């Protein structure tokens, strides 16, 4: 193409082998026309490929720049053909034979070389979507029509089919029958076979895509073939649950389970010619062309589906990047996590995302992200209680917390999935605080208490902050009693160590790190100081409860250290901690 910015001019058309189609005379004559290529009808809504018969269309419609000249076509052999009777043709969604409107306002049809296949004696022709079309002669009213083939032969139909017949797809005519309430029930008539393909009992039949169509039977949807056979039973809630991808593959949305807390949809690929159904997929597969698709399985594995419905597992885990180069697939992974035991044996393959939490003890259970969702896993990598959804193990309690999104509740179960108790709210239980047989839960006013493995609330929700129970003590803060200061309570709910710390950590091995009067120190389970941290001579020092320097062992020689040896450290050496 060449020309000005406002309009291009066709100079030449090249065949696939690189040779020129147009001779010099034809190329020059095309300058007298607006060249409008025919856009063939697609095979189906999901395909970019042209429907069968596209090679029986001309290449382009030629509209003369001089309106007194006849309309023409450019044939596939590179010839210009005109006819003074031609007025217009539609270039969009074109199908063979090509419909032509004449200057006398009649309609006929031509082949790819411009020859009349159907003489222009019709008042209207609906358009051929296959071998048949509705047509109307000049003597007919607008609500009358006759069914013809591409040669103009009239097709005989039963009276009830002819009266209630509507659109045509290939050899099939959609028709309906009305019940006593005048509701329409749809069926299919096989024109070529002169027989009923589908009895008029269905609530709806959508357009065929290749050899399959969505159909509604009462309030459920499925897939039928051109013989009226249910290849996918009508068990789906809506037409939108079924998506034809092309190449014989249907993507069906999986129904969500009651305890499925995921926000993403699951799918299955169904190969309609063979009836093969894939494993559950966590996202829509990627089209690799030539009837092949790439998908992600329930466990995050990468799956390849071939043109015959076969499945091959390519990789474990969810790749960060996938690129196709012809028949090759490039795959790049982020870091993946697994688990080894104390002897270095790989117990859980490195195919998972994060562990949150890692294997809690003594239960030996973890909550693991598989690339699509979280699931409960044992130390051998086996998924547990999958039907209950996303579960978090409670350390030391032999219990698991699941979320019931329908009821907006948290559910505590035992390790067999038996329900123990429920909590109002899906995120009420603070699973990370499970320790020594209890776990924190949130009550009214965003305050916290403790519940045990039997589901009994043993400490009421009085605390604005509540940590895990360690060494029999839990970090706690109750704003209305002590403001922002922290202390430690036992399972009676009373402070064992008074709230006098600006910051504090949980107990571990009988001691906790706290900040008191802007100093960091270790305390024991009685609240007694065991070590104080300070700054002297530009380095951290450690003092005992009597404020004697116990570390470093080397003698400090800066001026501030003078006189500190063997006596309590002066107040000026105590470090203020920010």
UniProtKB/TrEMBL annotation:
Output the lineage of the source organism: Bacteria, Pseudomonadati, Pseudomonadota, Betaproteobacteria, Burkholderiales
Task: Give the highest taxon in the source lineage.
Answer: Bacteria
Protein name in the entry: WG repeat-containing protein
Q: What PANTHER family does the record point to?
A: DUF3298 DOMAIN-CONTAINING PROTEIN, GLR2918 PROTEIN
By its UniProt entry, which InterPro entries does this protein fall under?
A: WG_beta_rep (IPR032774)
